[in-house]
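Worked Example 4.2. Consider the chain below.
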Amino acid sequence: SYQYFFGKTKQAVQTKMKSVQRLLALTTELDLTIEDLYDEWLLSIQHRVKESTTANYQLKAEKHILPNFGKKRVSELSSEAIYQFIQKKKADGLSNRYIADILIEMKSIFKYAVRKYHIVNPLDGITMPKVKKPEIQLLDEKEQKKLQEYLFQNPSRSNICIALTMATGLRIGELCGLQWADIDLKKRILTVRKTVQRIRKRGKSSKTKVILTEPKSESSKRSIPIPEFLIPYLEKFQGEADEFLLSGKKTPTEPRALQYRFAKILKNGKLPSVHFHALRHMFASKCIKLGFDVKTLSEILGHSNVEITLNRYVHSSFEQKVAYMSRIQMCV
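Applying the procedure from the previous section yields the following structure tokens:
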């Protein structure tokens, strides 16, 4: 393969060439497999990332990265091999988004190698698979109203907690992690301090466990005003400070169990099947329609910036587009 060097002077070009040649020599001399490099990298980051993040990294490495590249020496990995890997994963049915996540992990591993061993990074310049914005199936306004009526006509602990999500945009893990110590009914404020997740146990085992951990990010730790209409319903189920809102016990309900309950509610209410996370999207769209400014909405949702709120969570209906377009007038 060829590499071109550019510079304002001959000396500048020669300096660049010598620098790359030196790095190439170091890479060639490095007798380290990608599996060994991965183990080093994982050990170096474990103290600064969440347990759930580590488990996610391990899953992708053990299922995809190491079976394909683990026994190769670091110096043997080429851009051609990476593109072949991408095509193989596409053929296996993996989505572009998931393949991109695997490559992002590989980039982190090799950035570590660049810092420690001064190698040439084989992932530099790799074109990532194009990731399409996923289509989120939502309930329309009539269906949302029907769901709300069902929840309040059957005011169980689960149903009121689902209504709370519809009215605040909580993530499913955040709802599962809410304890009564996090709820101030007099001031009408709930505080998000933790989340519930199911993650893989460490090691080669495929077994999983449920953990109570800190929220997704620092911006996810937040206080949210509770709409007044929910207060009487919440008061009926109020428990001790260390009891969880959703379970009514001192142990939390796991997100998967709540997803099953939600699916059953939709079926009983003769409503279309949507993911629990759709409630968060519907909340965001409703807030924009009600005139919320995006900064306020972003903070309520626990986003680090308003672009996430606008790009991922705000959906306009066709009826809303028609209403806006009808305002356009021309002199004819």
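The longest helix spans residues 96-117. Strands lie at 183-184, 189-192, 195-200, 208-213, 222-225. Compare this with Example 4.1 before moving on.
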